[in-house]
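Deliverable D4.2, example record:
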Amino acid sequence: MEWCILSENRNSEQEDMSMAFQLRKYHAPDFTEAKFQSAPDAVLVPAPQDKTAPDHFHALSIFPEYFKIHGTWLLAEDSRMDCVPVYQDGRVLVVEPRNLKKGDLVVTGRTENCEDGIYVHPDGFGSINQEKDVFAFRQNRSRETSFSRDYDELYDLLRYEKAHGGYVVWVMGPAFSFDSDARNAFSRLVENGYVNALLAGNALATHDLEGAYLGTALGQDIYTQESVKNGHYNHLATINRVRQCGSIPKFIEEEHINNGIIYNCVKHQVPFVLAGSIRDDGPLPEVYGNVYEAQDAMRNHVRKATTVICLATMLHTIATGNMTPSFRVLPDGTIREVYFYCVDISEFTVNKLTDRGSLSARGIVTNAQDFVTNVCKGLGLSL
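Output generated by the structure prediction step:
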Protein backbone atom coordinates (compact mmCIF):
# COMPACT_ATOMS: atom_id res chain seq x y z
CA MET A 1 0.00 0.00 0.00
CA GLU A 2 2.82 2.40 0.88
CA TRP A 3 4.47 1.78 -2.51
CA CYS A 4 1.21 2.56 -4.25
CA ILE A 5 0.93 5.88 -2.39
CA LEU A 6 4.52 6.82 -3.26
CA SER A 7 3.94 5.82 -6.87
CA GLU A 8 0.79 7.94 -7.06
CA ASN A 9 2.61 10.90 -5.51
CA ARG A 10 5.48 10.55 -8.00
CA ASN A 11 3.06 10.45 -10.94
CA SER A 12 1.30 13.54 -9.57
CA GLU A 13 4.62 15.38 -9.28
CA GLN A 14 5.54 14.46 -12.84
CA GLU A 15 2.20 15.74 -14.13
CA ASP A 16 2.71 18.99 -12.20
CA MET A 17 6.19 19.38 -13.77
CA SER A 18 4.82 18.84 -17.28
CA MET A 19 2.23 21.52 -16.61
CA ALA A 20 4.88 23.92 -15.21
CA PHE A 21 7.17 23.58 -18.24
CA GLN A 22 6.63 26.46 -20.65
CA LEU A 23 7.80 26.83 -24.21
CA ARG A 24 9.52 30.09 -24.99
CA LYS A 25 7.13 32.46 -26.73
CA TYR A 26 7.84 33.34 -30.34
CA HIS A 27 8.12 37.04 -31.19
CA ALA A 28 7.46 37.75 -34.86
CA PRO A 29 9.18 40.66 -36.59
CA ASP A 30 7.51 44.05 -36.37
CA PHE A 31 6.52 44.52 -39.99
CA THR A 32 5.52 48.15 -39.36
CA GLU A 33 9.21 49.08 -39.10
CA ALA A 34 10.54 51.20 -41.93
CA LYS A 35 12.90 48.54 -43.28
CA PHE A 36 9.98 46.16 -43.87
CA GLN A 37 7.69 48.83 -45.28
CA SER A 38 10.27 50.15 -47.73
CA ALA A 39 11.68 46.76 -48.76
CA PRO A 40 11.19 45.70 -52.37
CA ASP A 41 9.34 42.56 -53.30
CA ALA A 42 11.53 39.46 -53.48
CA VAL A 43 12.63 38.62 -57.01
CA LEU A 44 11.12 35.38 -58.30
CA VAL A 45 12.89 33.60 -61.15
CA PRO A 46 11.59 30.43 -62.85
CA ALA A 47 13.73 27.33 -62.46
CA PRO A 48 15.44 26.87 -65.85
CA GLN A 49 15.05 23.09 -65.84
CA ASP A 50 14.16 20.20 -63.56
CA LYS A 51 16.45 19.76 -60.53
CA THR A 52 18.18 23.10 -61.19
CA ALA A 53 17.76 26.45 -59.42
CA PRO A 54 18.24 29.78 -61.21
CA ASP A 55 21.43 31.75 -60.67
CA HIS A 56 21.62 33.76 -57.44
CA PHE A 57 19.03 31.50 -55.76
CA HIS A 58 18.38 32.01 -52.06
CA ALA A 59 19.28 29.11 -49.73
CA LEU A 60 17.41 28.75 -46.44
CA SER A 61 18.86 28.56 -42.92
CA ILE A 62 17.54 26.88 -39.76
CA PHE A 63 15.83 30.15 -38.68
CA PRO A 64 12.39 31.54 -39.59
CA GLU A 65 12.63 33.39 -42.91
CA TYR A 66 10.14 35.82 -44.39
CA PHE A 67 9.74 36.88 -48.03
CA LYS A 68 7.93 39.97 -49.32
CA ILE A 69 5.77 38.88 -52.22
CA HIS A 70 3.09 41.12 -53.77
CA GLY A 71 3.57 43.49 -50.85
CA THR A 72 2.99 40.88 -48.12
CA TRP A 73 5.61 39.28 -45.88
CA LEU A 74 5.19 35.48 -45.99
CA LEU A 75 6.87 32.92 -43.74
CA ALA A 76 8.42 29.79 -45.23
CA GLU A 77 6.62 27.48 -42.82
CA ASP A 78 8.15 24.06 -43.51
CA SER A 79 11.76 25.16 -43.49
CA ARG A 80 14.94 23.20 -44.08
CA MET A 81 18.53 24.36 -44.28
CA ASP A 82 20.14 24.51 -47.75
CA CYS A 83 16.80 24.22 -49.57
CA VAL A 84 15.25 26.89 -51.81
CA PRO A 85 12.04 28.90 -51.29
CA VAL A 86 9.46 28.50 -54.06
CA TYR A 87 6.37 30.70 -54.35
CA GLN A 88 3.19 28.83 -55.27
CA ASP A 89 -0.50 29.61 -54.73
CA GLY A 90 0.08 32.30 -52.12
CA ARG A 91 2.57 30.30 -50.04
CA VAL A 92 6.32 29.94 -49.80
CA LEU A 93 7.20 26.27 -50.18
CA VAL A 94 10.55 24.79 -49.17
CA VAL A 95 11.95 22.52 -51.86
CA GLU A 96 15.11 20.45 -52.09
CA PRO A 97 16.98 21.46 -55.28
CA ARG A 98 16.73 17.87 -56.53
CA ASN A 99 12.93 18.19 -56.40
CA LEU A 100 12.66 21.45 -58.35
CA LYS A 101 10.53 21.44 -61.51
CA LYS A 102 11.13 23.61 -64.56
CA GLY A 103 9.21 26.85 -64.13
CA ASP A 104 9.02 26.78 -60.32
CA LEU A 105 9.19 30.38 -59.06
CA VAL A 106 12.34 30.44 -56.94
CA VAL A 107 13.24 33.34 -54.63
CA THR A 108 16.60 34.86 -55.53
CA GLY A 109 18.82 37.12 -53.44
CA ARG A 110 21.66 36.63 -50.95
CA THR A 111 20.89 39.34 -48.36
CA GLU A 112 19.07 38.71 -45.08
CA ASN A 113 17.84 42.07 -43.74
CA CYS A 114 15.10 43.15 -46.16
CA GLU A 115 17.42 44.47 -48.92
CA ASP A 116 16.09 41.87 -51.40
CA GLY A 117 12.66 41.38 -49.83
CA ILE A 118 14.17 38.62 -47.67
CA TYR A 119 14.36 38.68 -43.88
CA VAL A 120 16.06 36.06 -41.69
CA HIS A 121 14.73 36.19 -38.10
CA PRO A 122 17.32 34.51 -35.80
CA ASP A 123 16.11 35.74 -32.41
CA GLY A 124 12.39 35.00 -32.47
CA PHE A 125 12.70 32.92 -29.31
CA GLY A 126 15.18 35.27 -27.61
CA SER A 127 17.96 32.68 -28.00
CA ILE A 128 20.37 34.73 -30.10
CA ASN A 129 22.24 37.97 -29.34
CA GLN A 130 21.83 37.68 -25.59
CA GLU A 131 24.35 39.67 -23.58
CA LYS A 132 27.47 37.71 -22.68
CA ASP A 133 30.83 38.56 -21.24
CA VAL A 134 33.50 39.02 -23.85
CA PHE A 135 35.69 36.60 -21.89
CA ALA A 136 34.32 33.63 -19.95
CA PHE A 137 35.47 30.11 -19.17
CA ARG A 138 34.00 26.86 -20.54
CA GLN A 139 31.66 28.23 -23.20
CA ASN A 140 31.91 25.11 -25.37
CA ARG A 141 30.36 21.73 -24.56
CA SER A 142 33.03 19.31 -23.35
CA ARG A 143 33.61 16.37 -21.03
CA GLU A 144 34.18 18.92 -18.25
CA THR A 145 30.77 20.56 -18.69
CA SER A 146 28.17 20.04 -15.96
CA PHE A 147 25.09 18.54 -17.58
CA SER A 148 22.83 18.19 -14.54
CA ARG A 149 20.62 21.09 -15.59
CA ASP A 150 20.47 19.76 -19.15
CA TYR A 151 19.12 16.45 -17.88
CA ASP A 152 16.51 18.13 -15.67
CA GLU A 153 15.35 20.34 -18.53
CA LEU A 154 15.15 17.32 -20.83
CA TYR A 155 13.00 15.37 -18.34
CA ASP A 156 10.59 18.30 -18.11
CA LEU A 157 10.59 18.75 -21.88
CA LEU A 158 9.79 15.09 -22.55
CA ARG A 159 6.94 15.17 -20.05
CA TYR A 160 5.65 18.31 -21.71
CA GLU A 161 5.86 16.78 -25.19
CA LYS A 162 3.97 13.68 -24.08
CA ALA A 163 1.25 15.73 -22.34
CA HIS A 164 0.81 18.22 -25.21
CA GLY A 165 0.95 16.03 -28.29
CA GLY A 166 4.55 16.74 -29.27
CA TYR A 167 6.47 14.63 -31.76
CA VAL A 168 9.77 13.34 -30.37
CA VAL A 169 12.17 11.87 -32.93
CA TRP A 170 15.12 9.78 -31.70
CA VAL A 171 18.16 9.27 -33.96
CA MET A 172 20.24 6.33 -32.78
CA GLY A 173 23.52 4.62 -33.51
CA PRO A 174 24.10 0.90 -32.85
CA ALA A 175 25.75 1.40 -29.43
CA PHE A 176 22.43 0.84 -27.64
CA SER A 177 22.01 -2.64 -29.05
CA PHE A 178 25.26 -3.78 -27.41
CA ASP A 179 24.06 -3.23 -23.84
CA SER A 180 21.22 -4.97 -22.02
CA ASP A 181 20.33 -2.03 -19.79
CA ALA A 182 20.34 0.45 -22.67
CA ARG A 183 18.02 -1.77 -24.71
CA ASN A 184 15.69 -2.10 -21.73
CA ALA A 185 15.78 1.64 -20.99
CA PHE A 186 14.86 2.65 -24.52
CA SER A 187 12.16 -0.02 -24.58
CA ARG A 188 10.61 1.60 -21.50
CA LEU A 189 10.69 4.99 -23.24
CA VAL A 190 8.83 3.51 -26.21
CA GLU A 191 6.30 1.74 -24.00
CA ASN A 192 5.56 4.93 -22.08
CA GLY A 193 4.99 7.22 -25.04
CA TYR A 194 8.24 9.20 -25.12
CA VAL A 195 9.20 8.04 -28.63
CA ASN A 196 7.19 9.05 -31.70
CA ALA A 197 9.67 7.98 -34.38
CA LEU A 198 13.07 6.33 -34.63
CA LEU A 199 15.71 7.07 -37.27
CA ALA A 200 18.64 4.68 -37.49
CA GLY A 201 20.64 2.46 -39.78
CA ASN A 202 20.88 -1.23 -40.56
CA ALA A 203 23.31 -1.84 -37.68
CA LEU A 204 21.08 -0.64 -34.83
CA ALA A 205 18.19 -2.81 -35.95
CA THR A 206 20.37 -5.81 -36.83
CA HIS A 207 22.22 -5.98 -33.52
CA ASP A 208 19.11 -5.21 -31.48
CA LEU A 209 17.25 -8.07 -33.20
CA GLU A 210 20.35 -10.26 -32.77
CA GLY A 211 20.18 -9.51 -29.05
CA ALA A 212 16.54 -10.57 -28.89
CA TYR A 213 17.06 -13.61 -31.11
CA LEU A 214 20.43 -14.97 -29.96
CA GLY A 215 21.29 -12.93 -26.86
CA THR A 216 24.33 -11.33 -28.48
CA ALA A 217 25.35 -8.23 -30.38
CA LEU A 218 28.17 -8.75 -32.85
CA GLY A 219 28.65 -12.10 -31.18
CA GLN A 220 29.07 -10.77 -27.63
CA ASP A 221 26.63 -11.48 -24.84
CA ILE A 222 24.64 -8.24 -24.39
CA TYR A 223 25.01 -8.39 -20.60
CA THR A 224 28.42 -9.95 -19.88
CA GLN A 225 30.10 -8.73 -23.11
CA GLU A 226 31.74 -12.15 -23.42
CA SER A 227 32.21 -13.49 -26.93
CA VAL A 228 30.42 -16.72 -27.77
CA LYS A 229 31.72 -19.44 -30.08
CA ASN A 230 31.20 -18.56 -33.75
CA GLY A 231 29.50 -15.39 -32.52
CA HIS A 232 30.76 -13.43 -35.50
CA TYR A 233 28.14 -15.33 -37.52
CA ASN A 234 25.25 -14.24 -35.31
CA HIS A 235 24.37 -10.92 -36.92
CA LEU A 236 24.58 -12.53 -40.37
CA ALA A 237 22.36 -15.39 -39.22
CA THR A 238 19.88 -12.88 -37.82
CA ILE A 239 19.75 -10.88 -41.05
CA ASN A 240 19.37 -14.08 -43.03
CA ARG A 241 16.48 -15.29 -40.87
CA VAL A 242 14.70 -11.93 -41.10
CA ARG A 243 15.06 -12.00 -44.87
CA GLN A 244 13.68 -15.54 -44.92
CA CYS A 245 10.64 -14.25 -43.04
CA GLY A 246 10.28 -11.35 -45.45
CA SER A 247 10.02 -8.53 -42.93
CA ILE A 248 10.95 -7.53 -39.38
CA PRO A 249 7.35 -7.83 -38.05
CA LYS A 250 7.04 -11.32 -39.55
CA PHE A 251 10.38 -12.34 -38.02
CA ILE A 252 9.22 -11.08 -34.62
CA GLU A 253 6.04 -13.12 -34.95
CA GLU A 254 7.59 -16.34 -36.22
CA GLU A 255 10.56 -16.34 -33.81
CA HIS A 256 8.44 -15.22 -30.82
CA ILE A 257 10.67 -12.21 -30.17
CA ASN A 258 9.54 -10.44 -27.00
CA ASN A 259 12.15 -7.79 -26.15
CA GLY A 260 14.32 -5.03 -27.53
CA ILE A 261 14.13 -1.67 -29.25
CA ILE A 262 12.74 -2.76 -32.61
CA TYR A 263 10.33 -5.25 -31.01
CA ASN A 264 8.82 -2.47 -28.91
CA CYS A 265 8.62 -0.09 -31.86
CA VAL A 266 6.66 -2.72 -33.79
CA LYS A 267 4.49 -3.61 -30.78
CA HIS A 268 3.61 0.00 -30.00
CA GLN A 269 3.36 1.08 -33.65
CA VAL A 270 6.23 3.56 -33.44
CA PRO A 271 7.51 4.13 -37.00
CA PHE A 272 11.20 3.65 -37.75
CA VAL A 273 13.32 4.57 -40.74
CA LEU A 274 16.43 2.50 -41.44
CA ALA A 275 18.74 4.31 -43.85
CA GLY A 276 21.17 2.14 -45.77
CA SER A 277 24.93 2.52 -46.00
CA ILE A 278 27.67 1.19 -48.24
CA ARG A 279 28.99 -0.54 -45.09
CA ASP A 280 25.83 -2.61 -44.51
CA ASP A 281 25.67 -6.37 -44.22
CA GLY A 282 22.50 -7.87 -45.62
CA PRO A 283 20.73 -5.57 -45.18
CA LEU A 284 17.42 -6.10 -43.38
CA PRO A 285 14.37 -5.96 -45.69
CA GLU A 286 13.15 -2.61 -44.33
CA VAL A 287 16.44 -0.79 -44.97
CA TYR A 288 16.29 1.91 -47.63
CA GLY A 289 18.93 1.18 -50.26
CA ASN A 290 18.36 4.44 -52.11
CA VAL A 291 19.85 7.33 -50.15
CA TYR A 292 17.34 9.90 -51.43
CA GLU A 293 14.38 7.69 -50.60
CA ALA A 294 15.87 7.32 -47.12
CA GLN A 295 16.28 11.09 -46.87
CA ASP A 296 12.64 11.65 -47.88
CA ALA A 297 11.46 9.08 -45.34
CA MET A 298 13.53 10.70 -42.59
CA ARG A 299 12.24 14.15 -43.46
CA ASN A 300 8.63 12.95 -43.27
CA HIS A 301 9.23 12.56 -39.53
CA VAL A 302 11.63 15.47 -39.02
CA ARG A 303 9.13 17.93 -40.51
CA LYS A 304 6.70 16.93 -37.73
CA ALA A 305 9.30 16.89 -34.97
CA THR A 306 9.09 19.18 -31.95
CA THR A 307 12.08 17.57 -30.20
CA VAL A 308 14.95 15.64 -31.82
CA ILE A 309 17.43 13.60 -29.78
CA CYS A 310 20.48 12.24 -31.61
CA LEU A 311 22.56 9.58 -29.88
CA ALA A 312 25.97 8.13 -30.77
CA THR A 313 25.83 8.51 -34.53
CA MET A 314 27.77 11.37 -36.13
CA LEU A 315 26.61 10.96 -39.72
CA HIS A 316 22.93 10.41 -38.92
CA THR A 317 23.09 13.33 -36.49
CA ILE A 318 24.54 15.72 -39.07
CA ALA A 319 22.05 14.54 -41.69
CA THR A 320 19.13 15.05 -39.32
CA GLY A 321 20.50 18.38 -38.10
CA ASN A 322 20.60 19.65 -41.67
CA MET A 323 16.91 18.75 -42.04
CA THR A 324 15.76 20.29 -38.77
CA PRO A 325 14.78 23.98 -38.51
CA SER A 326 14.81 25.88 -35.22
CA PHE A 327 11.03 26.26 -35.29
CA ARG A 328 7.81 24.48 -36.17
CA VAL A 329 4.48 25.96 -37.30
CA LEU A 330 1.72 24.05 -35.50
CA PRO A 331 -1.69 23.32 -37.12
CA ASP A 332 -3.25 26.24 -35.22
CA GLY A 333 -0.64 28.64 -36.66
CA THR A 334 1.41 28.86 -33.46
CA ILE A 335 5.17 29.01 -34.00
CA ARG A 336 7.11 27.02 -31.43
CA GLU A 337 10.74 26.17 -30.85
CA VAL A 338 12.17 22.82 -31.95
CA TYR A 339 14.53 21.31 -29.38
CA PHE A 340 17.56 19.46 -30.71
CA TYR A 341 19.94 17.37 -28.59
CA CYS A 342 23.19 15.77 -29.72
CA VAL A 343 24.56 13.15 -27.31
CA ASP A 344 27.93 11.51 -27.92
CA ILE A 345 31.07 10.45 -26.07
CA SER A 346 33.08 12.47 -28.61
CA GLU A 347 33.35 16.24 -28.09
CA PHE A 348 34.13 16.55 -31.79
CA THR A 349 30.77 15.06 -32.76
CA VAL A 350 28.82 17.15 -30.26
CA ASN A 351 30.40 20.42 -31.42
CA LYS A 352 30.42 19.59 -35.14
CA LEU A 353 26.75 20.49 -35.57
CA THR A 354 27.50 24.09 -34.66
CA ASP A 355 30.20 24.11 -37.32
CA ARG A 356 27.64 22.81 -39.83
CA GLY A 357 25.11 25.58 -39.09
CA SER A 358 22.77 23.80 -36.66
CA LEU A 359 23.20 26.50 -34.04
CA SER A 360 20.18 25.46 -31.99
CA ALA A 361 21.62 22.06 -31.07
CA ARG A 362 22.23 21.32 -27.39
CA GLY A 363 25.20 19.02 -26.83
CA ILE A 364 25.75 16.51 -24.05
CA VAL A 365 29.11 14.72 -23.90
CA THR A 366 28.60 11.32 -22.31
CA ASN A 367 28.37 7.61 -22.91
CA ALA A 368 25.10 7.26 -24.82
CA GLN A 369 24.19 4.03 -23.03
CA ASP A 370 24.47 5.80 -19.68
CA PHE A 371 22.47 8.72 -21.08
CA VAL A 372 19.44 6.66 -22.06
CA THR A 373 19.35 4.80 -18.73
CA ASN A 374 19.60 8.14 -16.87
CA VAL A 375 16.72 9.55 -18.92
CA CYS A 376 14.63 6.47 -18.20
CA LYS A 377 15.27 6.75 -14.45
CA GLY A 378 14.81 10.52 -14.48
CA LEU A 379 11.33 10.04 -15.91
CA GLY A 380 10.51 7.63 -13.09
CA LEU A 381 10.57 4.52 -15.28
CA SER A 382 12.03 1.23 -14.03
CA LEU A 383 14.47 -0.76 -16.16
